[in-house]
Amino acid sequence: MGLSSVTNWATPARLAGLLMLPMLPVQASVEDVKLLPTPPMGFNNWARFECDLNETLFTDTAKSMVSRGLLDVGYNRLNLDDCWMTHDRAADGSLQWNSTLFPNGIPWLAKFAKQHGFHLGIYEDSGNATCGGYPGSYGHEKQDAETFADWGIDYLKLDGCNVFAEDGRSDAEEYRVRYHKWHNILSGMEDPLIFSESAPAYFCTNDTDWAKVMDWVPYYGELARHSDDVITFYAEGSPWESIMANYHFHTRVVRYQMPGYYNDPDFLIPDHPGLSMDEKKSHFAIWASSGAPLIISAYIPDLSDDEIEFLSNKDLIAVDQDPLAEQAALVSRDSHFDVLSRSLANGDRLVTILNTGKNTASTKVSLEKLGLDSTCQYRARDLWTGAVSTIKKSIDITLDSHATSVYRITPPRGCTSVTPTGMVFDTSSGRCLTAGKTVSFASCQASDSQAWRVSGTGSKLTISPLSDVKKCLVVGKSGIDLVSCGSGSSATWTYSITGHLQNTKGGCLTDSAGAAKVGTCNQDIAGQIIGLPSGVRLADVGVQQ
Ligand SMILES: *[C@@H]1O[C@H](CO)[C@@H](O)[C@H](O)[C@H]1NC(C)=O
Ligand SMILES: *[C@@H]1O[C@H](CO)[C@@H](O)[C@H](O)[C@H]1NC(C)=O
Ligand SMILES: *[C@@H]1O[C@H](CO)[C@@H](O)[C@H](O)[C@H]1NC(C)=O
Ligand SMILES: *[C@@H]1O[C@H](CO)[C@@H](O)[C@H](O)[C@H]1NC(C)=O
């Protein structure tokens, strides 16, 4: 059963239809990009303070964000996380703030935020109780939404603890029903609250369920937490590994992001004592490169000047806030480097190179791999140093362990065309589509046989490896094959929000234990959820760019 058989779900097809009707009530998410045209930036207390939040923390943080320049560069949200409320609802059923923690009250704090140039956001849960054991909103959704709006709040992070499936529904279906209810309530309000959905994070250990949930979040809200909470200040464990774990989930969901909806890999944690300066900067650079929410969870008054400086990097913030809202996708991956790329609204191309290894290492990234023309010379700006250089043929770079470089590449006249190029991979196994005598899914090694050019749009994509650009991926007699482009075989493909890469002859590209096969398309089945280079248009989402 496909999800599209569910009647009250806004399918891509319906969505495309809806957009043609001018008399709609106010909508949100990808249905109406205006609610959140670029990813949110600001502060949340959770990863740094967990339940130890209070009014003073928020007012001191706000003052510091003003005086240290963070507000000026765009960090304009103050978001309360769990534990702000009392254990009981009021007699009329409404939520109440803990007045020891918030002596002036949350409406006062919202006013304070506004007076200083910020928006106030809040946290609730779609279940019977929040993760911290405070009243959940289940059965009180409309009342709680109205309470938040009355208090002057315009952003809701809705968590998913203590959700119990009802009416014989699966867990994944139960979350869909609850978040859909919230979507209808919030998007029907006179001033819709921005809706941050935590639902996918509850399914990231099961690829099938995770994909099912990810498939609807772009239609219900403006951002969604796709993976676990980033490590908190007080928790045991490696903060770098925690950041990398969320980053890996992030690289698997590129196709969902578009203006109005942003994949959320969770907070920036720049004062975590377990991170080196290179790791903190890489965290920021990768999040900004991917157009992710930039929500700082740190004690901002005590951040070092160096930390404030990198968090305020205007070139990287401009990339994060770029109106095209493309998420950078993997160009290549090997045991030393991840290379990511995307386009920007003015026609520039971004490349982000992360040394994931334990040692200093060097690499070369060719212009072809970035989807550019090797016969042209490009101007590149290093977004950390501001240094401008000319690139011919390739970027050659040496990076320390866990350091990241980001270049903004500007084409000269006559060289403005870009072809989405990079990894085609099974988002479940992580294996890379590899050209060779036979086409296979193999471990990623950053070779030209694993870098694919994806040309065309919509249902007419053609896919060629850089190692043999005159050959196209086809469904041949014996399955997936490479033949000379234009030789009559079925060489056109469609890419969908489900991650299916479907051949016009029928059948989906399938990673079958490393063999590249053509299989019957089955929604949300591991092995058929394929990641493509950034900038490939989905055939089934009719939203405005
Ligand atoms: C508010 O919270 C901060 C951070 O947990 C804490 O250091 C401070 O003592 C608290 N202040 C009050 C007045 O409770
Ligand atoms: C408010 O928070 C304080 C500090 O965490 C706690 O001791 C107190 O019990 C809370 N009050 C209510 C009414 O929940
Ligand atoms: C959750 O809350 C609902 C509504 O109050 C109640 O009917 C249900 O029994 C609760 N479920 C659990 C497991 O506590
Ligand atoms: C994932 O969840 C589905 C139910 O949605 C279940 O059929 C499947 O067995 C689960 N997979 C694993 C690996 O647990």
UniProtKB/TrEMBL annotation:
<comment type="function">
    <text>Hydrolyzes a variety of simple alpha-D-galactoside as well as more complex molecules such as oligosaccharides and polysaccharides.</text>
</comment>
<dbReference type="InterPro" id="IPR017853">
    <property type="entry name" value="GH"/>
</dbReference>
<dbReference type="InterPro" id="IPR041233">
    <property type="entry name" value="Melibiase_C"/>
</dbReference>
<dbReference type="Pfam" id="PF16499">
    <property type="entry name" value="Melibiase_2"/>
</dbReference>
<dbReference type="InterPro" id="IPR013780">
    <property type="entry name" value="Glyco_hydro_b"/>
</dbReference>
<keyword id="KW-0964">Secreted</keyword>
<dbReference type="GO" id="GO:0005975">
    <property type="term" value="P:carbohydrate metabolic process"/>
</dbReference>
<comment type="similarity">
    <text>Belongs to the glycosyl hydrolase 27 family.</text>
</comment>
<keyword id="KW-1015">Disulfide bond</keyword>
<dbReference type="GO" id="GO:0004557">
    <property type="term" value="F:alpha-galactosidase activity"/>
</dbReference>
<keyword id="KW-0378">Hydrolase</keyword>
<dbReference type="InterPro" id="IPR035992">
    <property type="entry name" value="Ricin_B-like_lectins"/>
</dbReference>
<protein>
    <recommendedName>
        <fullName>Alpha-galactosidase</fullName>
        <ecNumber>3.2.1.22</ecNumber>
    </recommendedName>
</protein>
<dbReference type="Pfam" id="PF17801">
    <property type="entry name" value="Melibiase_C"/>
</dbReference>
<keyword id="KW-0732">Signal</keyword>
<keyword id="KW-0430">Lectin</keyword>
<keyword id="KW-0326">Glycosidase</keyword>
<dbReference type="GO" id="GO:0030246">
    <property type="term" value="F:carbohydrate binding"/>
</dbReference>
<keyword id="KW-0325">Glycoprotein</keyword>
<dbReference type="InterPro" id="IPR013785">
    <property type="entry name" value="Aldolase_TIM"/>
</dbReference>
<dbReference type="InterPro" id="IPR002241">
    <property type="entry name" value="Glyco_hydro_27"/>
</dbReference>
<feature type="domain" description="Alpha galactosidase C-terminal">
    <location>
        <begin position="336"/>
        <end position="409"/>
    </location>
</feature>
<dbReference type="GO" id="GO:0005576">
    <property type="term" value="C:extracellular region"/>
</dbReference>
<feature type="signal peptide">
    <location>
        <begin position="1"/>
        <end position="28"/>
    </location>
</feature>
